Amino acid sequence: MKSFFRIAARLVFAACVSLTAAACGGKKAESGIDYMALVNKLNPLPAGWEDALKTVTVVNSVGDEVEVEEKAYAAYVRLKADLEKNDGIFLELDSARRSVAAQQDIMDRFIAKYGADYAAKTVAQPGFSEHHTGLALDLYFRVRGDDGAFADVYHNEDMEKEEYKGIWDAIHAGLADYGFILRYPEGKEHITGYRYEPWHIRYLDSSGTARKIMASPGMTLEEYLAGKPAPEVRIDLGKSALYTQEELYDAMLAVKCRFASFAGCELHGVRYAGDEANSAENLKWLNSLADGAEFVQVAEFLTDFHSPVEDGPYAWERDSEYRDYQWWLARAKDGGWTIVSWGY
User: Fold this and answer.
1) The dihedral sign for the CA sequence 294, 300, 303, 307
2) Do 41 and 261 meet the contact criterion of CB atoms below 8 Å apart?
3) Which of helix, strand or coil describes residue 291?
4) CB of 69 within 8 A of CB of 203?
5) Which of 60, 257, 278, 344 has its CA 20 to 30 A from that of 139?
6) Which of 115, 72, 124, 125 has the alpha carbon at shortest distance from 96?
7) Over the Cα atoms of the chain, what is R_g?
8) Domain boundaries, the chain
9) Pairing of strands 200-203, 136-144
């Protein structure tokens, strides 16, 4: 996710300004990290990781320093060069490794600007961010105008524009050849815990493994490590006189992202419960649950899922199907959806 801070001065891209391990292009020491390590909302950064990590620090086209695991950076350089040569795509690094403190700062700022639920589905909790590994890279790109001058396209809302879909398709098509995968594919928010991010890639140090994952559209690292794909989720946004399909889709994403924290559960369906949930009584109830909130609208979603086969951290009946499990969302005027309550 894009940082809130940008250095104003535009500096020329520096291939390598400092190293924490070997010199750029030089012989690299064998890394002691596990390139297949899973770090997500349920799995923290492995103990001792930072002591074993070897990184490179570079400066991107907008003057930001970016720290990257050294082998991931070498692979990125090859990817970048080939995209420029073969596709005319000028790739840049927005961010890679972040400290726990830096991740907390990003979380705090997203909460302040967008609200807690948007932050929860967009930014990893400190200590549980894949960016702590140094193997997760957030990309952006530069486009060249008719006058030959470059413009940086690095804000999320700009990179998600339809006009740039072809650029992302070209980038994603070749990721596996360099040992990278698209980490947060569309439709798998209930597994990864994050919305689709075309810019977020993950280095695995194995083009063979990366090809296996990328050969199955939408496959996640979680599914690959589990040895089986998750079942398709039924989505029913229904019809509403209150909300647009886009508004309901955003609410549904919030539910799916939160569901990812239900360890061992398998999501089968998500559906909008209907406009009747937007009542004065429900609005009063949800405002009472969120101290100081000034919600003006309510939405209820229902989910069907299967509980873990083994005992887990939640009070589920083991190996059982749950139906019509409730999720209550609310939003303030001109605000995003917040999940206020869930359960029966």
Assistant:
1) positive
2) yes
3) coil
4) yes
5) 257
6) 72
7) 21
8) 14-226, 234-343
9) antiparallel
* Residue spans of alpha helices (H) in 188-303: 189-192, 207-214, 221-226, 245-259, 280-289
- What is the dotted CATH code of the domain comprising 14-226? 3.30.1380.10
| Helix (H/G/I), strand (E/B), else coil: 288 | helix
Identify the CA nearest to 179 among candidates 198, 214, 206. Answer: 206
Query: pLDDT tens for residues 122-135?
Result: 777 888 999 999 99
Going by pLDDT thresholds of 50, 70 and 90, the confidence category of residue 103 is: confident
Beta-sheet pairing, 295-306 with 321-332: antiparallel
Contact 190, 37 (CB under 8 A): no
Distance CA 286, CA 290 (A): 6
The encoded tokens of residue 315 equal 């009070």
Contacts of 297 (CB under 8 A, 6+ apart): 242, 243, 278, 283, 330, 331
Helical pair 70-87 and 165-174, crossing angle rounded to 10 deg = 120
For the segment 29-42, what is each residue's pLDDT rounded down to a tens digit? 466 899 999 999 99
Q: In what order do the strands lie in the sheet with 266-272?
A: 234-236, 266-272, 295-306, 321-332, 338-343
138 neighbors 124 (Cβ within 8 angstroms): no
Consecutive H or E run containing 87 = helix 70-87
Query: Which residue type sits at 265?
Result: C
pTM: predicted TM-score of the whole model, two decimal places? 0.85
- Alpha-carbon distance of 155 to 259, in angstroms, equals 27
Q: Which of 171, 99, 107, 104 is nearest to 131 (CA)?
A: 99
Which of 76, 206, 71, 55 minimizes the C-alpha distance to 138? 76
